[in-house]
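Example (one chain per record):
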Amino acid sequence: MVNEIEIVKNLNIPSGTNKRMDCPFCYNRNTFSVKNENGKLLWNCFHASCSVKGKQETEHSIEDIENYLNPKQRETQRFVIPKHFINIPTVPGCMAMLQRYDLDRLWEDGQLAFYYDVKQNRLVFPIEKDNMIVNATGRSLKGEKPKWYIYGKETYPYIVGNSDKAVLVEDCISACVLFSAGLTGIAILGTSLKNSYIPAFKKYKKVKDDSKKEIHSMTNLCIQNLDDINFFKPKEKKPIMLENLRNIFYRMELSAKETRILASVFASLGKKR
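Predicted structure:
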């Protein structure tokens, strides 16, 4: 383990940055991810045959501390769309993913934009800042590792929507689902909030963490019960009825307790039939 830590330390990853590279242990191409979160090193190899994974606190340099207290402003760089990103209509896997989350109609209406990464088999979400694409992140379509892959270096969240009420979520699909409910979805592209993201939140009147999993589960219970009694008629209107139903639950801004109570009610109704 000592050798592993030393090897990772010798990569000299600057504080506040992350890097994707060939694994220095199993030597597989572009499978090793390492990042420095203000002095904490986190690393992982995504190759199935490699078990390397760990974290280690490191000493902060004077430069690290100065950068943390006074982050340097730099000019935002435009992300150049690679040639292997193509439009998605010809890719059944992409459409199936959008349909699973009821996002296909929003894409068809031009309200959401996506690409398909031919090389990595991913549904790609372009990340915009001030109407300029600054990065992109891709969701694997057939279980490829990692599940989400960030292509560029710009650290900025994925934001979709024009509402002054914003909800923080982990991934882009969840942000798009919130957008379909009339809210602004902000995907922080992981489980931790980066300091560099905070300025992007200032224009919103209200920003809150998401209880998406609980709301999504509750909504699915409700939909399942309504399906069982053949509520969604006529059949061709079912998509818009589902969208309206989801909008109602997301706009209600339920607390975690209220969400659990409603989920329990819907589950009980299903058992009694």
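Caption: DSSP finds eight helices and 13 strands in the chain.
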